[in-house]
Design brief:
heterodimer, A: two-stranded antiparallel ribbon, 3 helices, elongated, B: alpha+beta, 4-stranded antiparallel β-sheet
C-alpha cells in the first residue's frame, strides 16, 4: 500500500488540535476560576510557555524532513522489525 | 477570576482569614509523573537506536510525529492534573467557609457553610510523609445539609483547626449558635 507521506501530517494535525483544545480548556479554567494574584499569573505564563515550547520543538523536528514523498506501508513495517527483534 | 476582596455572596464586615490549597507534595507527584512520562520515548529511542533503527528513513519522520503528539498529550494531561490541584481551594472568612472543588475539567462544586453551623472541627495527620511534612485533613462537622466538609491534605492541619475553632467561637458570640 502506497500513500503520500503528508497524509501522516493530516492525522498529526488532527491529534495536535485535540491536544490543543485540552490545553485551551485548562487555560480557560485557570483564567476563569483562579485566584486574582501573582501565582495565577505565573501559572498562566507557565502553561503558555509549555504550549509554545511544545509547538516550537515540534516545528523544529518536523521541518527537518521532506514531506513531499511517498511511503510504502510494508517497507515501513519491515524497517522497524530488526530493531525490535 | 476570584478575588479575596470580592467573594461570591460577599457579606458585610466579612474578611478572608485563611486561603487553603492541598499541600505542595501534590505538585511534586505531578512533576514526578511528568518526568516518567517524558522519559518513556527517550528510553524507546535509545533502545531502538542501539538495535540498529534507521532514523533517516521512514521511522525518523514517523517517530518525530509520534513523539510530538505524545508530548503534547502528556503536557495536556499534566496541565489538567495541575488545574485540578490549583483550583481545589478552601476559603475561611470571618463569617463562613467556602469549599471549591474542581473535579476534572468539566465539573466544579462550590459550597459554603456559615461558621455558626459548625459543630466540630477535627485535624488528622496520618502516615510518614504527612507527619514529616506536616500536612493532613481537617474535618468540619456541620449541622447543615452537607454534614461534613473536608479540607484535604492542607498544610499544618492543627493550626487550621485552631484557627477555624477560634473563628467559630467568635461568630457564635456575634450571631448565636445554629449548630444545635
Amino acid at each position: 500500500m502506497i500513500f503520500p507521506i503528508y497524509y501522516l501530517l493530516i492525522a498529526y494535525g488532527i491529534l495536535m488540535a485535540m491536544a490543543g483544545l485540552f490545553i485551551i480548556f485548562n487555560l480557560y479554567h485557570i483564567l476563569m476560576f483562579g485566584l486574582e494574584n501573582f501565582k495565577t499569573a505565573f501559572v498562566v505564563l507557565l502553561y503558555l510557555g509549555a504550549t509554545l515550547g511544545i509547538a516550537y520543538m515540534s516545528y523544529v523536528l518536523i521541518t527537518q524532513f521532506d514531506w513531499s514523498g511517498e511511503i510504502i506501508l510494508s517497507d515501513l513495517i519491515r524497517s522497524i522489525i530488526p530493531s525490535i527483534l | 477570576m476570584i478575588s479575596l476582596r470580592r467573594l461570591p455572596n460577599h457579606e458585610r464586615d466579612e474578611s478572608s482569614v485563611l486561603f487553603l490549597r492541598r499541600h505542595w507534595i501534590e505538585v511534586v507527584k505531578i512533576i514526578l509523573i511528568m518526568i516518567v512520562l517524558l522519559a518513556i520515548p527517550v528510553v524507546f529511542y535509545v533502545f531502538l537506536s542501539d538495535n540498529g533503527a534507521d532514523w533517516t528513513a521512514y521511522w525518523g519522520q514517523f517517530g518525530v510525529l509520534l513523539f510530538s503528539v505524545y508530548s503534547a498529550f502528556c503536557i495536556a494531561i499534566l496541565m489538567t492534573m495541575f488545574t485540578d490541584y490549583y483550583l481545589d481551594t478552601w476559603i475561611v472568612t470571618t463569617n463562613r467557609i467556602i469549599n471549591i472543588e474542581q473535579r476534572g475539567l468539566f465539573s466544579r462544586v462550590v459550597s459554603e457553610l456559615h461558621l455558626n453551623q459548625i459543630q466540630d472541627v477535627t485535624a488528622e495527620t496520618q502516615g510518614f510523609l504527612p507527619t514529616i511534612l506536616s500536612y493532613g485533613n481537617v474535618y468540619i462537622q456541620t449541622a447543615g445539609a452537607k454534614e461534613r466538609f473536608i479540607f484535604k491534605m492542607v498544610n499544618d492541619p492543627e493550626i487550621v483547626k485552631r484557627k477555624v475553632t477560634e473563628l467559630v467561637e467568635q461568630d457564635k458570640r456575634r450571631h448565636g449558635d445554629a449548630s444545635r
